Each structure stands twice: as structure tokens, then as C-alpha cells.
Batch of 2 targets.
Target 1
Amino acid sequence: DIQMTQSPSSLSASVGDRVTITCRASQSISSYLNWYQQKPGKAPKLLIYAASSLQSGVPSRFSGSGSGTDFTLTISSLQPEDFATYYCQQSYSTLWAFGQGTKVEIK
Amino acid sequence: EVQLVESGGGLVKPGGSLRLSCAASGFTFSSYSMNWVRQAPGKGLEWVSSISSSSSYIYYADSVKGRFTISRDNAKNSLYLQMNSLRAEDTAVYYCARETEYYDILTGYSHFDYWGQGTLVTVSS
């Protein structure tokens, strides 16, 4: 099975900061990588699919990059509504797997 | 507007059974694969099971294989998860999610574009 590892597990940042979250796959998954945002008590929301494609309606400050085993989610200028937990997910295998999550907190 | 509404959660004793439902509306349900994803209290997301549009392909996470059964009724626009032999570690919010495929030339990339609000399953004596 493919394992997904995110880093860091949590981070503190200020409004306006550039934030980068990393996701590593245990084997090559080409560009089969999605990113989700989840706020407390809410369902996850799709941000990025196919490693770098922005979901409709998602602000352009969110971007994704990477291929193979290493991927990044970047928030170019952190906004108050971006404080949440972010998950990567591989779609290479039919046995879907999520990373453990990265919690973005207010500094 | 796409809507997914889960129901059927509740408190059940270890070893018991529960059937979750997900009612879909606002899209052609029979054209999409569907998934169940769960989240234990304070923990991350865990994919549970998926079913293709015509029920031809079904997959399970190892943690639920042999105990859970996913099914769907396209005439009723509904997705189900039959959960048997429940354990304390099955306690979680269960979400249903629609799976959509994006095609880049000849390659299809899948993702979960719509999620329900979740239903809580608590397994405790």
C-alpha cells in the first residue's frame, strides 16, 4: 500500500505569511495527488487536484506542485480564513490514502 | 446544487451492526463512483471504501475488509455502508464523498469534489 507522509504536522504562521506544506509518497505516484482543507466540525474541501490544478472557486493564493514522490502545497499570503488542517491524498492506487494532516495555526 | 446527506449514525455496542445511508441530489448519481471516508475523534482522514458507478468495482481499506459492505441503489440516488462486527476503533464521523475524474489528454486524475456533512458512529458498551 502507498503511504503518504506530510510535514510539518503543525505550524504557526501570521496573516500575510507564505506557507508551504510538504507531502511525500512511499512510491512514485506521478501527479496523482490531491489537497484538501478541513476546518473544525466541517467536511473536507477540495483545493488542488492532479498535483497542481486549482479547484473551481478556490482562491489563487493556493497552489500545488510536484510529481513522483514529493509534492508541496503553497499558500502565498495566508488569510484569516486559511487557518485549518490540510491533507494530501494519493489517487494513484485504488486503495486511496491520505496524509496525516498539517494543522495551520495562528502565531 | 450537489448535495450529499448522510444518515444512520448512532451509538452501538461492540460487535453490533449499523447501516449508514447517503442521499445524493443535484447530479446524475448513476454516473459517479462514490466513497466513504471516516475520521476518528481528533484524528485524520481515513478512506474506508469505494464503489464504481455501476457497482462493478468495489474496494475496501484493510481495516474494514470482511466487516463492512458498500452498496448503492442508483434508482434511489443512494449510497450505503453496512457495518458489522463493529469495534471501538470504528468510532468516527463517516463522510460520503463523490469521486470525479479529470482528464489531461489521455490520463484520468480522480479526486473527491463533494462531501456530505458526516454522521457520527460511536461504538461503546
Target 2
Amino acid sequence: AQTVTQSQPEMSVQEAETVTLSCTYDTSESNYYLFWYKQPPSRQMILVIRQEAYKQQNATENRFSVNFQKAAKSFSLKISDSQLGDTAMYFCAFMKHVGNAGNMLTFGGGTRLMVKP
Amino acid sequence: GAVVSQHPSWVICKSGTSVKIECRSLDFQATTMFWYRQFPKQSLMLMATSNEGSKATYEQGVEKDKFLINHASLTLSTLTVTSAHPEDSSFYICSAKGSQGKNSPLHFGNGTRLTVT
């Protein structure tokens, strides 16, 4: 079974600054996907960024980037130029690759991020 | 983009009654849907995997006779909470994998807040 650990229950950052959210995971799989999801107060799950384990290059999406360290099983999220709208719960998630049917996500416990004006 | 519609968005019911939650993929076919449960300030926990045309696969500790899942078509999965109790009060979220093969993203519904009185 896979486990995902987010060691920071809460974090805060000043608007326009940079913040890094930590995530570690444990798996015996060699082929898998990692995700960061954002859950604002509306409770809608929003995909922030995705990383495929076989890709060495770290994924980036505008202000969001990851530091994927496969050997260390670490997958941190960096948010640059933080905006007030980034305030939300952030979940790190793991999904093992199983053909075209896909598989379920295993979520970390979440990090509540507050961006302060 | 692909949309997953979940209905109702919130429901209040009395103890002992049953409640049905629907999860629809609006513009794509989903052979597999996932049902999650989220308690306040906690992470999403997978309850079951819903497979079109076959029995759902339940996670350990989830009572299949209490949480009935039906996936009768490629666009609809339903979760019925039977004989609801106050401890069943929670936020239930479904997700479905797109139909674009192995790289298809997971799409989430907006969730259903269930309150059992």
C-alpha cells in the first residue's frame, strides 16, 4: 500500500512571496504519478500540477513548480509570487499506473495555506 | 473540458433514512469512478471504486451493505447511504477518469455535504 505524508498542517506566506509545501511518499511501485491538488473553501478539488515518475524533469505550471526527488520519495510544491487566491488546502496525492483504467488517488493529510496581504 | 456533475450538493436527512448521491460524467464516458469521503479539516479517504457493469470494490473498513454503489451506465454512478446515522455526516466526493487513455486526468465532482440529524 502507498502512503503519502504532508508534515506541515498549516503554513502562511506573505502575498508576492514564495512558499514551499512538503510531501513525502512511500511505495514499492516504479511507475506512478504524483499530483498536487488545491481545495479552496468551495471544496472543489482543483488539479495544480502533475508529475510522472519516469520523467526526471520537474513539472512546472506558471507560478507552480515541483521538486521531485524520486530516490528520496519527495515531491514538494513551490508557489512563487503568492496570491490571495492561493489560500486553500493543498493535498499531495499518489496514483500508481495501471493501464488505461487508471487507479485511485491516495491523498496526504493536507496543508492549509494562508496567503496574507 | 470534461465535467463531473455531482448531485445533490448538500442534503439533510433524518437518522434511519437513506440518501442517494449521483455522480455523472457529462461529456465523457467513465468506466471507473471513485467515491471519497472527507471529514472536516481532514483529507479525502477512498471509500470504493465503482466499475461500470460490475460490483464496486470497497476499501477496508467500508461497509458495502451500508454504502451501496451502482454504476449502471458509462456516465452515472450512484452512492446510497442506507439507514443513515449522524456519524455518516460528511462530505462525499466522486471522481472519474477521462476517456483519453492512460494520461487522462481525474475529474472531480463538486461534492455532497451530507448532514444526518
